[in-house]
Amino acid sequence: MKGKTYGYLAKLDGETTRARSKRQESRIAKSLKGYTTINSGATLGQNDVISDFCEVEAKTTSKESYTLKLADWRMLRKKCDRRKMPIFMLDFEKSKDTLVIMTNDDFEHLLRLIESDK
To answer: What is the phi/psi pair of residue 81, to 5°?
Structure first.
């Protein structure tokens, strides 16, 4: 019999990849005041989360590494509305770390916005 797990990892026991991804996408959509797209992983032309200012491709892994290919990034940008910022978010489930990947131009744009608010 397996040992008991607590907290965040308890939700991972027996949960499908699809269920974990849906939970991740819902969390991201809530934090960005956006919405999730229906069946985004299986539908061409839609990223996982869409907000007023960005579109997010969300990935989750139980491993300690993730390989992001340039082709994945290009597909995100291709599916993204040109007026919105493409963002790739990656959750590492075991460590609870979340990485946000964006272009340097978009990062510098955000820094300028922060600076102009001071």
So the answer is: -55, 135
